[in-house]
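Order emerges. One example.
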Amino acid sequence: DNGTAFCLPCIPGRANPLKGQLACAACGKNTYTEAPEAITCTAGPAGRTAGNGSASCSACSAGKRVNSTDNTCVACAIGRFSDDQDAPACKHCPKGFYQPDNSSVSCVPCIPGRANNLTGQKECTKCKLDEFTARAEMYECQRCPAGKSTANEESASCGDCAPGTYTINSACVKCPSGYFQPESRKISCRYCPTGYYQPENRS
């Protein structure tokens, strides 16, 4: 029989650091070799995985970005997201959305009663008293129209100015002491008549 005139190179995913071997060893878990003739296997960058005998590592998953310095995977910060594998950068959540968690693949819309006019935020802002947003994904809260108000912050709608209040500059204002208003949506309060009094606001 003829002898062997040459040696075979280790294929990608295998390596051999010793002379006179019968075979190349498969790279272990989370290590790899991309090129043939490898002497040792290389550990995968942080955040990437590889099975036994791998010639490459996994892509950075959505919710992470690739660090251009060392090729590791870095989680997207609060207020940011990535929806693709091996994203070069995380995106800011747009206006009307927020994201309170790291490693996110999308953003959360502001619910009615809240708004957000900035990008990259971790939460939406509650609408103040006498302001509202009727829909999700809103940038700004709206003032209630004249003669209407909200009972609380974070409201999705306005109601009529209640008895005990009057309308001024499109806002509902409590009647001062000594005055009253038994009806809704009025532009002034009434004096307490003789023989009566009112020591508190909003009567």
User: Anything to note?
Assistant: The mean pLDDT is 89.
